[in-house]
Amino acid sequence: MSALRHASDLSQTALSEKLKRAFVERAKALGFDMVRVARPDSTPLAPVRLQAWLDQGHHGSMDWMAETAERRASPQALWPEVRSVILLGLNYGPTEDPLAALALRDRASISVYARNRDYHDVIKGKLKEVAGFLAVRAGSDVKVFVDTAPVMEKPLAEAAGLGWQGKHTVIVSREFGNWLFLGAIFTTAELPADAPERDHCGSCRRCLDACPTNAFPAPYQLDARRCISYLTIEHKGHIAPELRPGIGNRIFGCDDCLAVCPWNKFAQAGREAKLQQRDDLAALPLAELARLDDAAFRARFSGTPIKRTGRERFIRNVLIAIGNSGEPRLAREALALLDDPSPLIRAMAVWALGRLAPGEVAALADGRRESETDPDVRAEWRNVLADTMETIP
Fold this sequence. Notes:
The protein is an alpha+beta fold and 393 residues long. Helix content is 44%, strand content 10%. It starts with a helix and ends with a helix.
């Protein structure tokens, strides 16, 4: 009986390996660059680390992270029937230095990932197709996730061997550097798991030192409340004055910690990237962006992740970049937005004017401060006027 059982186990293993090979072949034919498998119980430390991060308040205003912590803790908590977790990576590596735009102070720097079609749309369609292939071949149930459900993709990607979480908490791949979009497929099929990837960061801390706003309190820890990507994309309110100068001209996301990683020199970025970057999203003039109304904003960024933030947050970011530009000629763009319907925009227009045209602030404040009904905008006027008085000899 034991010999028969052993033979049966060997046969089942062979079938699982054959199924996995067919799946990987299909996924790569659809454009995925990396495909690995992890066991559902392969990230036992993730729940503890997640809770510690939440307890420190490092999630900022992303309340859904705390609300879904229990389901996010492990794949089985989200779907008890899961037997295998497939992690897939899609290369979006840039063809040029993503930090070059930072030197163009009158132009906008947009994160590499946002210079393509919205990755949710790109990857989800591919994931659904390859998941359907698996469901038919294995007769199994499947669930597809692309950053839209409480799934801890990065620890799972490390456990599956796609890469390791660097000191900046982002997945680093030996083949593709820091430039992988991640997707996950949960399945009831039993697939052979891959070996986890070990940490290759060593003593390097370039990513930590590159952060303009000191968002890393320690290696492997990110305080989202100071992260430019969080501030310019997720954060809906006013950005703290002490963080604004560090944002520079980054109006949507930040690539600094990714781009300085030494592992990028081994990446196949650019040469084999499956996503075509839009040239019209590189180094856009800040003056042009500041003039976008809601309809023009939606049309300009249709199909990109930028559109999801809405005009209000976007123009807030543009005004911060204008205030950091050191270009007095851009003061007129801030002046034109002093009466915008959005208090968030009006407040940042005041701040930008204070930076570019401090000598004109007092005259501009006459009449506006008294008629302003929003307390945050009034506070910006007070702060700018106070700063102006301090700079007058």
